[in-house]
User: Fold these one by one.
Assistant:
Number 1:
Amino acid sequence: MKDTILTILAISVIFIGIPLLIVWVKDRGGLIGLVVKRIFGAISLSFGVIIIGWVVYNMFRPTEEFEASFFTSFRLDKVTASFFMILRLALPITMIGLGWHWLTSTREEPMKESENKASDATSEPAQGTDSSAHQG
């Protein structure tokens, strides 16, 4: 019983605690947040490229497992084959896009949004006083 509880706790820390810690560090900003963002961007980008490479390789030299789990495009009509190809490549393309965004984005982008909100908040009273002056 004690081993079961420790196993559940360890799995919870690995699959829930560590990702939450990573997101917290990334969102917190600073140099550490930027480094974490770039590391996971590189990992996401490389995994996406690897998965696309694996799928393309298996289209031309399919393994038994690949044929058993997916229909190859050569056995289907063109519409069905393109639909299955889009489904196969949706996740890796998303991973490449997210990885590239995290690698190339700067930390200033979220600050610009907060500056816009701050400037909107400061401009509202000024507009309110102008409109009350025009009404009176």
Number 2:
Amino acid sequence: MPTWWKQATPSRRAAIIFAALIAIGVIIVDCVRIYSWWAGAANSPLMIALAATARWWLRPSQGGLFHFPRPPMPKWFLPLTIVAMLFCAWFGAQKLRHSFWDHEVYAMRRTIHGQRRRNDDGASPYMELYPPSG
């Protein structure tokens, strides 16, 4: 196993694998389709076994499907819930107008556009997947 592979983070390894798959013509949708099929094939025997043995590990229903007794609720629960919601709404409303500019743009730049942190000398701490041409 090459040294650069051992030093790569798991997310970097995944990026290298996906880039290699794309380079040979496999797209992400193909990977999802294959994984979904194998996940369904692996889960089907488990679901069949659980359904076949359900009468031994499930209790029979006492009052029908939706006739559950209502649990007792303390008198302080509803007012405390309303106070907690108002408290969170008060502090959350102050940040509401900054939501897109601070949170989503930061996440978009870091994950989708690939803004990277640089070392002190300005070099990227990551191995370049494709060397610059030219």
Number 3:
Amino acid sequence: MRKTKLWLRIVGVFYLALVAMNVGYLTANPDGIADTIPFPVDDNGLHAFIDAWFVFIFALAALGAVMLYASTKPERAGMLVLAVVVGELTYGLAGDIWLIGRGYDAASYTAFSVLHVVFAVTGILLLRGELKDRAALVSNEVSRTIA
């Protein structure tokens, strides 16, 4: 469980750091956001984009906070790890691929794609390891009960 605790804390802190960075950028430089959009956007479109991005940021904040809380009881956090893994592969990796295909900055989204894959793969490996550990515990308990 030590590895799960560490994973929850690393990914949770990363999510919260991303939230802080995005909130800072969106509030300090909202007009600069237009430069990151690969097609012409008017003020209404820019405001809609920022509003939608804030909804995404709020979800990341919630997940980051829940991961930090769950790290205090990592033995009960398997479904949360799985949910984060699925999120990393869908809104993370698939979302980045979609945005790159739409013309957004490939370099920055590729870097984030690598992080999504790292978080997803390490999360899957943690879950597999925990399943093996639990199976071994059950097997040992059954063996002791029978003997």
Number 4:
Amino acid sequence: MATTITIPGGQATLRDQDEMTERHRRPVKVISMRLMRVMGQLADITHLADLDPSAEDATERMMATIGMTEDESSALLRLTDAAIYAALKSWTLDLPIPVTVDEVQDIPGEVYDALAEATARTGKDLMVSEGQTAQAGFGPDSAGDVASPTGASGA
């Protein structure tokens, strides 16, 4: 069942995961695969004391601590865009609703922030973990998987 939230200037209806098609979910999955190294390192940071103290704010300290590249930083922001795209079903704003992940960046800043906060859990729930990737036959232990459609490589 969809959830209605208040956003600056109106209301938005967010899809529950069971209402999302694979077209909605796929961008989150693809981006999360690109971020596995970063997500693993983020999981190891248990409190702000673990972060590099030379940066000014928590985000910068986090990036400095784990050594995020510009591409990883961009992918992390894009993950938020993808979560908003996946969840946003409708809104009462007098603006066209984004129909692509890229169009999410055209949402007014305060509306984007409210949607980002409301969809953060959705993004985390849809992300692909290392275990899921390995289960899909793409992990390092899948070479000898007899269920592999092409068989072992012989390497």
